[in-house]
Amino acid sequence: MPMISVLSSLRIRFMLALGGVLCLALLALALIARYQVTPILLADESQFATAELDRAERAFASESSHMQRLVEDWSYWDDTYEFVQGERPEYIDSNLYDTTLETLDLQLMAFFNIRLQPHRIVGFDRDGAYHSCAGVSEECTWASEMIEQITAQIEALEEGTHTWLMTYPRLAMVGLSPVYKSNEDSPAAGWLAMVRPLSANWIDGLRETTGIDLSLTTHEADISLLEETLERLSPSEMRAGRFLDAVPPSHMLRLEAVLPRQRYQANLETFKFALYWTGIVLVITLVVVLFLLERMVLGPLRRFAAFTQKLQSQDSTTTPSDLLARQDEIGTLAREFHQLRDHQQRQQKLLLDLSQHDHLTGLANRRLYDERLAQTLQGARFKGACVSVLMVDVDHFKAYNDHYGHPAGDECLIVLARCMEQCFDQAGQLVARTGGEEFSALLPKSDMFEATQQAEALRAAIEALGLPHVMSQVQPVVTVSVGVATFRPGRGHTEIAPSQMMRQADEALYAAKQAGRNRVYHQHAEA
Length: 527
Prior knowledge:
- The chain is α+β, with helices and mostly antiparallel strands.
- About 55% of the residues lie in helices and about 20% in strands.
- It contains 15 helices and 15 strands.
- The protein has helices spanning about 5-10, 10-75, 80-85, 90-95, 100-105, 145-155, 200-210, 260-315, 320-325, 330-355, 365-385, 395-405, 405-425, 450-465, 500-515; strands spanning about 110-115, 120-125, 130-135, 160-165, 170-180, 190-195, 215-220, 230, 235-245, 250-260, 385-395, 430-435, 440-445, 480-485, 520-525.
- The protein has a six-stranded antiparallel sheet, with helices on both faces.
- The chain is flat.
């Protein structure tokens, strides 16, 4: 059998077409997996990483609250109050010794008098030796940089208890509180600062508490590093990081967490499983369709074609040559019904055009405009995009018609319509004639600022046409007033009816007229 005859068989062509559809469907599934599902899974993973960093940061906040309570317990103590004022020398032997700091997990305790001078410093140097000094004496010079940092913070902060993270000269958490007498309304006698080192042991404890493999590092200040980062190290691990608020500003504190990717892998495997089964079901479906097509459509169609061919041999009616050249069953039916279908399609197109466009200007009419507006608002609600509408009215158009005549008025409207089409020629934008001298424009994905700019550009373009209008009370040329309404979807299921949108644009147009015409007025559309 010749190859042309084989390919002209509708049954063979259906099999080839459905095979192509199957290939395209499988390709579509692969593309969906690559460009739709995978980004969603990665975005979900990014949200998970952000949530874990938030949880780790909350753990730091919890430790900070604990430090705040600790420094307040010591500061709001009468013995501390008297000690900072130079009384109770026994306070040192009774309370300030190495085991006290070890129990509180502190490196340094610094007492300041009301003049912000160090009164007493106790703590461990970098070698782990314990020191207790009156002020920053030679024995406690190891603490001088931290004392300077704390003093600078006291001068910058308002009175009250504060905690912060310190990156230099050592990574630590600092708690600071004014020293008050517990039961009296007396002024502060000084300040108490506690410094807790964020040591490896402390980080290990935080890891056990949160279940997150986190770490802290310091970096020199660089504003380009402030963004949160996510690095996928392997199919099973990823590293997320962000910078925390810390002092001094010259050094930045970075929180990093190595997180598992089981959630992503589990979702990916689930999707692959569903994808494989979808492909199998699709193949089985196409096989069943081919079988049913042969039994229910192609067999009867071939018999009907043979019958119509017998009728055709007795019919002298001529048919188009391009349809006579077709050799398949559909071509046989097309010979008989082509003229009727072609006539019907022309009538339908004519009716559709008449029902959706203005006969004078050729612009969309109110019916088509309302349909497109409803569709655009529905899509904007789900996509979270702004939608703006413009209502345009020709200033003193009745006076124009009365002076120049209605034919001239029609020509004026046609010119304005062409100008509007040129101004709003972007994809998705629609201009319609919705009244006698009233026009409307639909601007998808345009916020208040963009819509107002485009409306102002339209107003200026129409004025620049220079169409004479001696009866206008605004300008000696034709001008327009424009009302703009913008709908911005909020959270949840905010909806707005097209009629409400147009009413608010009409209110804006009325405000533009009241303000003197030949101007643009805008207001937000409210659901």
